[in-house]
Design a protein that fits this description.
- This is Cyclopropane fatty acyl phospholipid synthase.
- It is a single chain.
- The chain is built from 14 helices and eleven strands.
- The chain has 418 residues and is α/β, with parallel strands linked by helices.
- It has two domains: 83 residues, no CATH class; 299 residues, Rossmann fold (3-Layer(aba) Sandwich).
- The strands form two sheets. The protein has a nine-stranded mixed β-sheet, with helices on both faces. The chain has a two-stranded antiparallel sheet with strand order 1-2.
- Helix 2 crosses helix 3 and helix 12 packs antiparallel against helix 14.
- The longest helix has 21 residues.
- The N and C termini lie far apart (68 Å).
Length: 418
């Protein structure tokens, strides 16, 4: 704990020790031990699945539930040689410690630091998604009824083509770069990006999409309010011979009606899951405004399954430190949100969670092997443990069937003549 900067990490540096928390910590300890027993996780012995180094773990769990579990890991109070397995088993047993309710925040469009992308994903600089070559696609057309409740009312049932990629057969570390490039290519294919396409990447999360689109002879506008990413993108634009324009946004998303240009396609990577409901509606409305008739939207995002609902608090560490607006929407909810925009019509879905999770594993292992480089770049021990925990948590959520990964395409329908 002496190495924790209290100004940067106040919740990590200060263990909650109020009287009521201490009383609840005993119960938290017994519940955690029972959950580990039910999950088949050992706490002692040479082959222990996890080791508790400080009793502060139980004070944190008593105070903040899953967030406390994560913050205790960030503080170095417990460790595991197989963190994704431990988290997956706890999730599969339904471990859901009570915590003080913390409201979800608003989308802030923060991007992963580029240096972290390099250490986790390599020079491809693609954040999480991977599509390996060994998946077998199966396609079916599904029909979704209009939402039964809420403000979103589709006049007609929604029909969409869903392709599911089977899990990759053999995944090796050398496959990582190709799998990430294939994921970018798949997203651009779904947006019908090719020679002459005018593409908007908003809000941008990585230079990878723009670089791949330029290689297809497209012209790209990238928009972001993240200063570090904007600086990286401007360096790319200086070598792109006019094919890339960087737009620094004053806020997370463009203000509705302020964009005067029209685009053939709009893409989003790792953005939708981080958007609160208002931000998602604004983003979709912006897509509708800036697309030419017949233009395409393509997005890649994580989606929730029904089983996530009682375990949604497991995501609190993402909301607290990485994406305050993180929402566990289902694929159906995302599709209905798109369809709720008068001009947008969902066209197709690619479900590829089995590939995404293997990409996460490779990125986590790569980052774990480059922690010295991360430290040299200024990422302290707490941040490094946070990064490892969030990668392991997403991996566990996917393997436990609580999250899935999808790419969704939609088109802007031409307005009918009156």
């Amino acid at each position: 704990m002496s190495t924790v900067d209290p100004l940067r990490w106040p919740a990590i540096a200060n263990v909650p020790e109020q009287g009521r928390i201490r009383r609840r910590a005993r119960k938290a300890e017994s519940e955690f031990a029972y959950a580990c027993e039910q999950a088949g996780l050992s706490l002692e012995g040479a082959d222990a699945d996890l080791r508790v180094l400080e009793d502060a773990l139980f004070l944190r769990i008593a105070d903040a539930g899953w967030l406390g579990l994560a913050e205790s890991y960030m503080a170095g109070e417990w460790l595991s040689s197989n963190l994704p397995h431990v988290l997956q088993r706890l999730l599969e047993t339904g471990y859901a410690p009570k915590s003080n309710a913390r409201p979800k925040g608003l989308f802030d469009a923060r991007a992963t630091p580029v240096d972290l992308l390099r250490l986790s994903a390599g020079e491809g600089l693609f954040s999480y998604a991977s599509v390996f070559s060994s998946g077998v696609p199966t396609t079916e057309r599904i029909t979704l009824p209009p939402p039964g409740r809420g403000k979103m009312k589709s006049a007609q049932p929604l029909g969409v083509e869903v392709t599911t990629l089977s899990d990759p057969t053999v995944v090796e570390r050398l496959d990582q770069s190709d799998a990430q490039a294939r994921a970018v290519a798949t997203l651009l294919d779904m947006a019908d990006v090719g020679t002459g396409t005018y593409l908007a990447d908003v809000p941008a999360q990585t230079p990878a999409v723009a670089l791949a689109a330029i290689a297809r002879n497209a012209t790209v506008d990238v928009m972001s309010c993240d200063e570090e990413l904007v600086e990286e993108l401007e360096a790319v634009a200086s070598k792109a011979q006019g094919a890339l324009e960087v737009c620094a946004l004053p806020g997370p998303l463009p203000e509705p009606g302020r964009l005067r240009r029209r685009f053939d396609a709009v893409v989003s990577v790792d953005g939708v899951e981080a958007m609160d409901p208002g931000a998602l509606k604004t983003w979709l409305h912006t897509c509708e405004q800036v697309l030419v008739p017949g233009g395409h939207v393509a997005l890649e995002t994580l989606v929730a399954t029904e089983a996530l609902k009682p375990l949604d608090s497991a995501l609190d560490v993402l909301r607290a430190y990485l994406a305050p607006g993180w929402h566990g929407r289902s694929m159906e909810q995302v599709l209905h949100s798109i369809h709720a925009q008068p001009g947008l019509k969902p066209q197709s879905v690619l479900v590829f969670g089995g590939h995404y999770v293997e990409g996460l594993r490779l990125q986590r292992e790569r980052f774990e092997a480059h922690q010295r480089e991360a430290a040299a770049l200024g990422f302290d021990a707490v941040y490094r443990r946070l990064w490892i925990f969030q990668l392991a948590l997403k991996e566990a959520l996917l393997r436990a069937g609580l999250l899935d990964a999808v790419m969704i395409s939609a088109t802007l329908q031409p307005r009918r003549a009156v």
